[in-house]
Amino acid sequence: MRSEDDETVEAAVQVVDSHVHFWDPARMDYPWLAAVPALHRPYRPSDLDTGGHELAAAVFVEAGRADGDAAREVDWVEELAADWPVLRAVVAHAPLEQGAAAAPRLAELAGRPLVRGVRRNVQDEPAGFATTDAFVTGVRSLARYGLTFDLCVRHHQLAEVTTLARRAPDVTIVLDHLGKPPVAAARPGPWRADLARLAAAPNVVCKLSGLATEAAPGHTTADLVPYLAHALAVFGADRCMFGGDWPVSTLAVTYPDWLGVVTAALAGRPESERSAVFGGTARRVYRIGS
Q1: How many domains does the chain have?
Q2: What is the pLDDT of residues 33-85, one digit of tens each?
Q3: In the 8-state DSSP scheme, what is residue 246?
Q4: Would strands 54-61 and 87-93 be described as parallel, antiparallel, or unpaired?
Q5: Which residues constitute the domain of residue 39?
Q6: Half-sphere exposure of residue 4, counting CA atoms within 13 Å on the CB side?
Q7: Largest CB tally within 10 Å, which of 14, 28, 208, 281?
C-alpha cells in the first residue's frame, strides 16, 4: 500500500484485535494454503509484528484447517494461549450445515474456556447455502450455547445472509471483513445498499478488517476509508470492531498501516467511538474482561 499522502498512526495505539489467525502446516492440513504459497509456512504469535502497537487482547478465528482437524485446532490454540496470554478468545469451526446434528460439537465447544463463537466459512458456498433450513437451524442453536457466529461471505452474498440474520434474531452475528466489498473494481453501489440492509438487523456487528486484500495493488488509504466510513455510518461505532486479519493481511498491507487506515476512518469522531472500535465492541461481543 502506498504511503504517500496517506494518514498514518502518529503514536502507539492499544487495541483489541478481533480477528487474528495462526497456523502450522506441519501440525495440521490447511487445504487452501496450497494456492497461496506466500502464506504456506507456520504463523505463530511470535511472528506477529504490530509495529510497536500494543495488543490488549486478541481473538483467534479458525484458520481453514481440514474439517477433521477442527477439534485439534482448538487444542493447539489453547496451547498457544498458555504461552501468549494476549490470546483471550477463540472462534472455532463447527459444521452448522448439519443442523440439529451439530449440537454435540457445539456443546463441546461451549465447554472450552476460550471459545466464544463459531465460524463456518460461507464465502465459497453456492447460492442459497446460508438460508437452507439445516444451516439456519445450526446457526439458531448457537444461542442455546451462548456462542456468537462469525460470518465470512463475499459481497454478492450479503442479501442472502440478511435473511439468515433475521431468521436467527437471538444469535449475535459478526460480519467479517465488511462482507468483502468489490474494492478493486471500484463499484461499491450494490454493496453499500446491501450492507445497510444487513445493518438494520440489530443482532449483527461488523469487523473493520480484511479490506486491503480486496483492493487493487498500489491502493492508498483514501481508496479504503470510504468503505470503512460507510460501515461505521450504518452500524455505528458500538457495533464495529477492529480486526487485523493477520497474517492474511500481509499479502497487501503491514499491521501498522492497517491500523493507520482504520484510524483515518475514525478521524474527527469522538473518543468514545474510537474506544469502541479499538476495544469496547470486541470485549462485549466476545466476552473479554479488562
Answers
A1: 1
A2: 999 999 999 999 999 999 999 999 999 999 999 999 999 999 999 999 999 99
A3: B
A4: parallel
A5: 14-285
A6: 3
A7: 208
